[in-house]
């Protein structure tokens, strides 16, 4: 009797052990899916676990809902952001002692500080090399007072604008050719006008009828001043604050600003430029964060404080304008 009971008990124990092992295999099988190294990810996608998009080189959004932009994360870790600028007053330029300043630099410094990046380092290039340099990752962002235009928006993502301004014209002292508009230049094929290479004014001049051969492209402001002083060109054109800063810096008694200059008209509308920071397409999420902080600066009055030292007034504030709105207006 004892022997039979023991044998039955052993059979029961073995059976229970087998059942336990079977259950353990089932549980382990369910848990392997989505485990380290493989399985099914949320949303039904399969594959090995990877770092968020852009983590390797510091760019890219990392996907919607991924939290902090990958580029911003890298900038915060290294403690600085590298910006591209064209050494153009009053937007972004380098002082004799190496200090970076200008409207766009000071705005970027304030915004990035709010984002947790305490230092700005600059890379000075020709204006026409800013977007190519950004795309080639020579720098993280362009802070050069660059106008938002549909053509440029095909290659970069703009943050919302930090100012709104019009164009200006400088001529020889006394305005001997009586130039007060781009149309006046177009009316005389013998006249020439100096423009910074890659600047939006080239398109404005062409829209007013100025011929290609009348436009002399220069690398920077000093070259523009020299071209006008030596008679190589009859006029210089650029944005109002930029032209004013250039004239004050040059201190030349041979040239002057045209006070009653008529703003260019393109497609039936007076042209005003909106300047903004530019980011790579894959860093659109950081451009959005940048814009949010910029609007906070404007609402607090801090933006105007940053702009005033560089010749800007309340009339040049963007008044909450967005990059999308600027591009939509330009497309009309």
Describe the structure.
- The chain has 332 residues and is of the alpha/beta class.
- The chain is built from 12 helices and 15 strands.
- Strands 1, 4, 5, 6, 7 and 15 form a 6-stranded mixed sheet that branches. A 5-stranded mixed sheet has the order 10-9-11-8-12, sandwiched between helices.
- α3 packs across α10.
- It is globular and about 60 Å long.
Set out the fold topology.
Layout: H1 2-32, H2 70-78, E1 80-85, E2 93-94, E3 100-101, H3 103-114, E4 119-124, H4 130-135, E5 141-147, H5 150-153, E6 157-158, E7 163-165, E8 167-172, H6 182-186, E9 193-196, H7 201-207, E10 215-218, H8 221-229, E11 235-239, H9 240-250, E12 255-257, E13 265-266, E14 269-270, E15 273-279, H10 284-300, H11 302-307, H12 323-331
Parallel strand pairs: 1-4, 1-5, 9-10, 9-11
Antiparallel strand pairs: 2-3, 5-15, 6-15, 7-15, 8-11, 8-12, 13-14
Helix pairs in contact: 3-10
